[in-house]
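S1.2 Input.
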Amino acid sequence: MQELIQIKTENAAVLTKLQKQFNTSIQKIDFLKSKIGYVKKEIDQIQVKITSEILPLEKKLIEVQIKEIIYLDALFQQNIFKKRDNDTLSEMIFERTTEFISRTESPELEDIFTRHNDGISFEEANEEASKKVSETLKESFSSIFGMKFDDDADLSDPEKFQEYIDQQVAAEEAEYEARKANKKKTAKQIEKEEKQQQEAKNLNKTSRQIYMELVKAFHPDREKDELEKERKTLLMHRITEANEKDDLFELLRLRLELLGTDFEHSNDESLKYYVKLLKQQVAELEQEIAGLTSFGQRSFFGPSLYERFASDKYQSLENKFKKEIANLKKIIKDEEKQAPFYKDSIQVKYLIDQYRKEQKSRNRRGFDINDVFGRM
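S1.3 Output.
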Protein backbone atom coordinates (compact mmCIF):
# COMPACT_ATOMS: atom_id res chain seq x y z
CA MET A 1 0.00 0.00 0.00
CA GLN A 2 1.37 3.42 -0.97
CA GLU A 3 2.11 5.91 1.80
CA LEU A 4 -0.36 8.75 2.18
CA ILE A 5 1.37 12.14 2.03
CA GLN A 6 0.69 14.07 5.24
CA ILE A 7 2.35 16.94 7.07
CA LYS A 8 2.99 15.66 10.57
CA THR A 9 4.23 17.22 13.77
CA GLU A 10 4.50 15.87 17.29
CA ASN A 11 1.45 17.91 18.21
CA ALA A 12 -1.25 18.11 15.50
CA ALA A 13 -2.66 21.22 17.17
CA VAL A 14 0.37 23.25 16.11
CA LEU A 15 -0.23 22.68 12.38
CA THR A 16 -0.83 25.93 10.50
CA LYS A 17 -4.04 26.58 8.57
CA LEU A 18 -2.26 25.91 5.26
CA GLN A 19 -0.77 22.67 6.57
CA LYS A 20 -4.20 21.47 7.71
CA GLN A 21 -5.69 22.40 4.31
CA PHE A 22 -2.88 20.49 2.59
CA ASN A 23 -3.57 17.39 4.69
CA THR A 24 -7.34 17.62 4.17
CA SER A 25 -6.98 17.97 0.39
CA ILE A 26 -4.57 15.03 0.22
CA GLN A 27 -6.96 12.86 2.26
CA LYS A 28 -9.88 13.89 0.04
CA ILE A 29 -8.00 13.10 -3.17
CA ASP A 30 -6.84 9.75 -1.79
CA PHE A 31 -10.47 8.90 -0.96
CA LEU A 32 -11.81 10.09 -4.34
CA LYS A 33 -9.17 8.18 -6.31
CA SER A 34 -10.03 5.01 -4.37
CA LYS A 35 -13.72 5.62 -4.99
CA ILE A 36 -13.16 6.14 -8.74
CA GLY A 37 -11.27 2.85 -8.91
CA TYR A 38 -14.07 1.11 -7.00
CA VAL A 39 -16.83 2.65 -9.15
CA LYS A 40 -15.03 1.69 -12.39
CA LYS A 41 -14.65 -1.87 -11.13
CA GLU A 42 -18.36 -2.09 -10.30
CA ILE A 43 -19.35 -0.59 -13.67
CA ASP A 44 -17.31 -3.32 -15.39
CA GLN A 45 -19.12 -5.95 -13.30
CA ILE A 46 -22.50 -4.38 -14.06
CA GLN A 47 -21.82 -4.33 -17.81
CA VAL A 48 -20.76 -7.99 -17.81
CA LYS A 49 -23.78 -9.11 -15.77
CA ILE A 50 -26.27 -7.09 -17.83
CA THR A 51 -24.86 -8.51 -21.08
CA SER A 52 -24.63 -12.11 -19.90
CA GLU A 53 -27.59 -12.42 -17.51
CA ILE A 54 -30.12 -9.59 -17.85
CA LEU A 55 -30.31 -8.94 -21.61
CA PRO A 56 -31.07 -12.60 -22.56
CA LEU A 57 -33.96 -12.62 -20.06
CA GLU A 58 -35.24 -9.25 -21.27
CA LYS A 59 -35.10 -10.51 -24.85
CA LYS A 60 -37.12 -13.58 -23.88
CA LEU A 61 -39.68 -11.40 -22.07
CA ILE A 62 -40.02 -9.09 -25.07
CA GLU A 63 -40.59 -12.10 -27.36
CA VAL A 64 -43.49 -13.26 -25.15
CA GLN A 65 -44.96 -9.74 -24.99
CA ILE A 66 -44.72 -9.33 -28.78
CA LYS A 67 -46.55 -12.65 -29.14
CA GLU A 68 -49.35 -11.18 -26.98
CA ILE A 69 -49.54 -8.13 -29.28
CA ILE A 70 -49.80 -10.43 -32.32
CA TYR A 71 -52.67 -12.34 -30.65
CA LEU A 72 -54.49 -9.07 -29.90
CA ASP A 73 -54.03 -7.85 -33.47
CA ALA A 74 -55.42 -11.14 -34.81
CA LEU A 75 -58.56 -10.64 -32.67
CA PHE A 76 -58.83 -7.03 -33.84
CA GLN A 77 -58.75 -8.12 -37.49
CA GLN A 78 -61.53 -10.62 -36.85
CA ASN A 79 -63.74 -7.61 -35.97
CA ILE A 80 -65.71 -9.59 -33.34
CA PHE A 81 -66.13 -6.68 -30.88
CA LYS A 82 -68.43 -3.69 -31.04
CA LYS A 83 -66.95 -0.62 -32.74
CA ARG A 84 -66.20 1.20 -29.46
CA ASP A 85 -64.45 -1.87 -28.03
CA ASN A 86 -62.57 -2.49 -31.25
CA ASP A 87 -61.39 1.15 -31.27
CA THR A 88 -60.17 0.79 -27.69
CA LEU A 89 -58.46 -2.49 -28.59
CA SER A 90 -56.69 -0.68 -31.42
CA GLU A 91 -55.44 1.96 -28.95
CA MET A 92 -54.18 -0.80 -26.64
CA ILE A 93 -52.35 -2.53 -29.48
CA PHE A 94 -50.83 0.75 -30.66
CA GLU A 95 -49.63 1.64 -27.15
CA ARG A 96 -48.05 -1.76 -26.58
CA THR A 97 -46.48 -1.80 -30.03
CA THR A 98 -44.99 1.67 -29.47
CA GLU A 99 -43.37 0.41 -26.26
CA PHE A 100 -41.59 -2.51 -27.95
CA ILE A 101 -40.98 -1.54 -31.58
CA SER A 102 -37.78 0.41 -30.88
CA ARG A 103 -36.39 -2.38 -28.67
CA THR A 104 -36.42 -5.15 -31.25
CA GLU A 105 -36.32 -5.71 -34.99
CA SER A 106 -39.68 -7.16 -36.02
CA PRO A 107 -41.24 -6.53 -39.46
CA GLU A 108 -44.47 -8.00 -38.10
CA LEU A 109 -44.52 -5.44 -35.30
CA GLU A 110 -43.89 -2.63 -37.81
CA ASP A 111 -46.89 -3.77 -39.86
CA ILE A 112 -49.06 -3.84 -36.74
CA PHE A 113 -47.87 -0.34 -35.77
CA THR A 114 -48.76 1.06 -39.20
CA ARG A 115 -52.17 -0.65 -39.17
CA HIS A 116 -53.10 0.92 -35.82
CA ASN A 117 -51.64 4.36 -36.61
CA ASP A 118 -53.82 5.34 -39.59
CA GLY A 119 -51.27 3.98 -42.05
CA ILE A 120 -48.39 6.08 -40.66
CA SER A 121 -45.19 4.04 -40.27
CA PHE A 122 -43.05 3.97 -37.14
CA GLU A 123 -40.24 5.86 -38.89
CA GLU A 124 -42.61 8.68 -39.91
CA ALA A 125 -44.22 8.79 -36.44
CA ASN A 126 -40.83 8.80 -34.70
CA GLU A 127 -39.66 11.77 -36.75
CA GLU A 128 -42.83 13.70 -35.88
CA ALA A 129 -42.54 12.78 -32.17
CA SER A 130 -38.94 14.05 -32.08
CA LYS A 131 -40.09 17.40 -33.44
CA LYS A 132 -42.82 17.63 -30.77
CA VAL A 133 -40.35 16.80 -27.96
CA SER A 134 -38.04 19.54 -29.24
CA GLU A 135 -40.87 22.07 -29.31
CA THR A 136 -42.07 21.11 -25.82
CA LEU A 137 -38.58 21.57 -24.37
CA LYS A 138 -38.06 24.84 -26.18
CA GLU A 139 -41.32 26.24 -24.80
CA SER A 140 -40.64 24.97 -21.26
CA PHE A 141 -37.08 26.25 -20.97
CA SER A 142 -37.89 29.51 -22.74
CA SER A 143 -40.65 30.29 -20.23
CA ILE A 144 -38.75 29.08 -17.13
CA PHE A 145 -35.19 30.27 -17.88
CA GLY A 146 -35.77 32.85 -20.62
CA MET A 147 -33.52 30.83 -22.92
CA LYS A 148 -33.81 31.35 -26.68
CA PHE A 149 -33.63 28.43 -29.10
CA ASP A 150 -32.99 28.29 -32.83
CA ASP A 151 -35.98 27.12 -34.86
CA ASP A 152 -34.04 24.13 -36.19
CA ALA A 153 -32.54 23.10 -32.81
CA ASP A 154 -32.93 19.35 -32.29
CA LEU A 155 -33.66 18.59 -28.61
CA SER A 156 -35.31 15.21 -29.13
CA ASP A 157 -33.22 13.30 -26.58
CA PRO A 158 -31.24 14.15 -23.40
CA GLU A 159 -27.83 13.97 -25.14
CA LYS A 160 -28.80 16.35 -27.94
CA PHE A 161 -30.47 18.67 -25.44
CA GLN A 162 -27.36 18.80 -23.21
CA GLU A 163 -25.10 19.33 -26.22
CA TYR A 164 -27.22 22.26 -27.42
CA ILE A 165 -27.35 23.84 -23.94
CA ASP A 166 -23.55 23.53 -23.64
CA GLN A 167 -23.10 25.22 -27.03
CA GLN A 168 -25.47 28.04 -26.06
CA VAL A 169 -23.74 28.61 -22.72
CA ALA A 170 -20.32 28.61 -24.42
CA ALA A 171 -21.56 31.10 -27.05
CA GLU A 172 -23.01 33.40 -24.35
CA GLU A 173 -19.76 33.24 -22.37
CA ALA A 174 -17.73 34.05 -25.50
CA GLU A 175 -20.03 36.98 -26.27
CA TYR A 176 -19.74 38.22 -22.69
CA GLU A 177 -15.93 37.96 -22.79
CA ALA A 178 -15.87 39.81 -26.13
CA ARG A 179 -17.97 42.65 -24.67
CA LYS A 180 -15.69 42.76 -21.64
CA ALA A 181 -12.61 42.91 -23.87
CA ASN A 182 -14.01 45.83 -25.86
CA LYS A 183 -15.08 47.70 -22.76
CA LYS A 184 -12.54 50.11 -21.33
CA LYS A 185 -11.12 48.62 -18.14
CA THR A 186 -10.56 50.50 -14.93
CA ALA A 187 -7.18 50.50 -13.24
CA LYS A 188 -8.64 48.22 -10.57
CA GLN A 189 -9.87 45.70 -13.18
CA ILE A 190 -6.49 45.71 -14.93
CA GLU A 191 -4.76 45.13 -11.62
CA LYS A 192 -7.12 42.24 -10.80
CA GLU A 193 -6.56 40.58 -14.19
CA GLU A 194 -2.80 40.91 -13.90
CA LYS A 195 -2.96 39.37 -10.45
CA GLN A 196 -5.05 36.44 -11.77
CA GLN A 197 -2.62 35.89 -14.65
CA GLN A 198 0.32 35.91 -12.26
CA GLU A 199 -1.50 33.50 -9.97
CA ALA A 200 -2.07 31.09 -12.88
CA LYS A 201 1.62 31.32 -13.80
CA ASN A 202 2.63 30.60 -10.22
CA LEU A 203 0.33 27.58 -10.04
CA ASN A 204 1.76 26.21 -13.26
CA LYS A 205 5.30 26.94 -12.06
CA THR A 206 4.72 25.10 -8.75
CA SER A 207 3.56 21.94 -10.49
CA ARG A 208 6.33 22.26 -13.09
CA GLN A 209 9.01 22.57 -10.40
CA ILE A 210 8.02 19.26 -8.80
CA TYR A 211 7.98 17.59 -12.20
CA MET A 212 11.41 18.94 -13.16
CA GLU A 213 12.90 17.84 -9.82
CA LEU A 214 11.77 14.30 -10.54
CA VAL A 215 12.90 14.40 -14.17
CA LYS A 216 16.41 15.58 -13.21
CA ALA A 217 16.70 12.83 -10.61
CA PHE A 218 15.31 9.93 -12.64
CA HIS A 219 15.77 10.59 -16.35
CA PRO A 220 17.32 7.36 -17.70
CA ASP A 221 19.29 8.75 -20.68
CA ARG A 222 22.56 9.35 -18.79
CA GLU A 223 22.34 6.20 -16.70
CA LYS A 224 25.06 3.64 -17.59
CA ASP A 225 23.92 0.77 -15.37
CA GLU A 226 21.36 -1.23 -17.39
CA LEU A 227 19.29 -2.39 -14.41
CA GLU A 228 19.14 1.12 -12.97
CA LYS A 229 18.34 2.50 -16.43
CA GLU A 230 15.39 0.10 -16.70
CA ARG A 231 14.16 1.11 -13.23
CA LYS A 232 14.41 4.83 -14.08
CA THR A 233 12.63 4.27 -17.40
CA LEU A 234 9.66 2.77 -15.53
CA LEU A 235 9.72 5.60 -13.00
CA MET A 236 9.84 8.22 -15.77
CA HIS A 237 6.76 6.65 -17.29
CA ARG A 238 4.89 7.17 -13.96
CA ILE A 239 6.25 10.72 -13.61
CA THR A 240 5.34 11.70 -17.20
CA GLU A 241 1.88 10.17 -16.92
CA ALA A 242 1.15 12.10 -13.70
CA ASN A 243 2.39 15.34 -15.27
CA GLU A 244 0.31 14.87 -18.46
CA LYS A 245 -2.79 14.31 -16.33
CA ASP A 246 -2.02 17.40 -14.18
CA ASP A 247 -2.08 15.00 -11.23
CA LEU A 248 -0.26 17.00 -8.54
CA PHE A 249 -1.32 14.44 -5.92
CA GLU A 250 0.59 11.71 -7.76
CA LEU A 251 3.61 13.97 -8.40
CA LEU A 252 3.78 14.80 -4.70
CA ARG A 253 3.44 11.11 -3.81
CA LEU A 254 6.27 10.23 -6.22
CA ARG A 255 8.39 13.03 -4.81
CA LEU A 256 7.88 11.72 -1.28
CA GLU A 257 8.40 8.09 -2.33
CA LEU A 258 11.50 8.71 -4.45
CA LEU A 259 13.18 11.74 -2.90
CA GLY A 260 11.87 11.63 0.67
CA THR A 261 11.00 15.34 0.57
CA ASP A 262 10.20 16.90 3.93
CA PHE A 263 6.86 18.70 3.44
CA GLU A 264 6.84 19.85 7.07
CA HIS A 265 9.40 22.51 6.15
CA SER A 266 7.80 23.76 2.92
CA ASN A 267 7.49 27.53 3.02
CA ASP A 268 4.01 29.11 3.11
CA GLU A 269 4.28 30.36 -0.47
CA SER A 270 4.91 26.87 -1.87
CA LEU A 271 2.30 25.36 0.41
CA LYS A 272 -0.28 27.93 -0.71
CA TYR A 273 0.10 26.83 -4.32
CA TYR A 274 0.11 23.15 -3.41
CA VAL A 275 -3.23 23.64 -1.66
CA LYS A 276 -4.75 25.55 -4.60
CA LEU A 277 -3.67 22.91 -7.11
CA LEU A 278 -4.89 20.09 -4.89
CA LYS A 279 -8.31 21.75 -4.46
CA GLN A 280 -8.61 22.02 -8.24
CA GLN A 281 -7.86 18.33 -8.47
CA VAL A 282 -10.54 17.54 -5.87
CA ALA A 283 -13.14 19.35 -8.00
CA GLU A 284 -12.05 17.48 -11.14
CA LEU A 285 -12.23 14.10 -9.40
CA GLU A 286 -15.68 14.87 -7.98
CA GLN A 287 -16.85 15.74 -11.49
CA GLU A 288 -15.39 12.47 -12.81
CA ILE A 289 -17.29 10.49 -10.17
CA ALA A 290 -20.55 12.26 -11.07
CA GLY A 291 -20.01 11.28 -14.70
CA LEU A 292 -19.24 7.67 -13.84
CA THR A 293 -22.23 7.19 -11.54
CA SER A 294 -24.61 8.49 -14.24
CA PHE A 295 -23.63 5.46 -16.35
CA GLY A 296 -26.67 3.96 -18.06
CA GLN A 297 -29.07 6.81 -17.23
CA ARG A 298 -31.86 6.67 -19.84
CA SER A 299 -33.70 9.84 -18.88
CA PHE A 300 -33.19 13.10 -16.98
CA PHE A 301 -35.24 11.91 -14.02
CA GLY A 302 -34.73 8.14 -14.05
CA PRO A 303 -32.07 6.24 -12.08
CA SER A 304 -28.83 5.22 -13.78
CA LEU A 305 -27.82 1.58 -14.14
CA TYR A 306 -25.09 2.30 -11.62
CA GLU A 307 -27.62 3.55 -9.05
CA ARG A 308 -29.81 0.48 -9.66
CA PHE A 309 -27.13 -2.18 -9.37
CA ALA A 310 -24.08 -0.83 -7.52
CA SER A 311 -23.41 -1.94 -3.96
CA ASP A 312 -24.76 0.27 -1.20
CA LYS A 313 -25.06 0.06 2.59
CA TYR A 314 -28.15 -2.13 2.26
CA GLN A 315 -27.28 -4.62 -0.52
CA SER A 316 -24.31 -5.93 -2.47
CA LEU A 317 -24.09 -5.74 -6.26
CA GLU A 318 -24.41 -9.54 -6.37
CA ASN A 319 -27.63 -9.53 -4.33
CA LYS A 320 -29.17 -6.76 -6.42
CA PHE A 321 -28.59 -8.79 -9.58
CA LYS A 322 -29.93 -11.96 -7.97
CA LYS A 323 -33.15 -10.12 -7.10
CA GLU A 324 -33.42 -8.58 -10.56
CA ILE A 325 -32.88 -11.95 -12.26
CA ALA A 326 -35.36 -13.72 -9.98
CA ASN A 327 -37.93 -10.98 -10.63
CA LEU A 328 -37.43 -11.15 -14.41
CA LYS A 329 -37.79 -14.94 -14.42
CA LYS A 330 -41.02 -14.67 -12.43
CA ILE A 331 -42.41 -12.04 -14.83
CA ILE A 332 -41.52 -14.23 -17.83
CA LYS A 333 -43.20 -17.25 -16.23
CA ASP A 334 -46.34 -15.23 -15.47
CA GLU A 335 -46.41 -13.74 -19.00
CA GLU A 336 -46.05 -17.19 -20.58
CA LYS A 337 -49.02 -18.40 -18.52
CA GLN A 338 -51.11 -15.38 -19.51
CA ALA A 339 -50.18 -15.33 -23.23
CA PRO A 340 -52.96 -17.75 -24.32
CA PHE A 341 -55.55 -15.42 -22.70
CA TYR A 342 -54.79 -12.86 -25.41
CA LYS A 343 -56.41 -15.22 -27.91
CA ASP A 344 -59.59 -15.42 -25.82
CA SER A 345 -62.18 -12.76 -26.74
CA ILE A 346 -63.80 -12.88 -23.26
CA GLN A 347 -60.47 -12.25 -21.53
CA VAL A 348 -59.59 -9.50 -24.02
CA LYS A 349 -62.96 -7.80 -23.43
CA TYR A 350 -62.01 -7.63 -19.74
CA LEU A 351 -58.64 -6.09 -20.70
CA ILE A 352 -60.41 -3.51 -22.85
CA ASP A 353 -62.60 -2.45 -19.91
CA GLN A 354 -59.57 -2.24 -17.60
CA TYR A 355 -57.68 -0.18 -20.17
CA ARG A 356 -60.52 2.38 -20.28
CA LYS A 357 -60.39 2.74 -16.48
CA GLU A 358 -56.62 3.31 -16.62
CA GLN A 359 -57.10 5.94 -19.32
CA LYS A 360 -59.48 7.90 -17.09
CA SER A 361 -56.96 7.73 -14.25
CA ARG A 362 -54.16 8.99 -16.51
CA ASN A 363 -56.32 11.85 -17.77
CA ARG A 364 -56.97 12.95 -14.19
CA ARG A 365 -53.24 12.78 -13.38
CA GLY A 366 -52.35 15.28 -16.12
CA PHE A 367 -49.00 16.00 -17.77
CA ASP A 368 -45.83 14.33 -16.48
CA ILE A 369 -42.40 15.27 -17.87
CA ASN A 370 -41.45 11.57 -17.64
CA ASP A 371 -44.03 10.93 -20.38
CA VAL A 372 -41.66 12.86 -22.66
CA PHE A 373 -38.35 11.26 -21.65
CA GLY A 374 -39.29 8.23 -19.55
CA ARG A 375 -38.92 5.64 -22.30
CA MET A 376 -35.89 7.03 -24.11
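S1.4 Remarks. Residues 128-183 form one domain.
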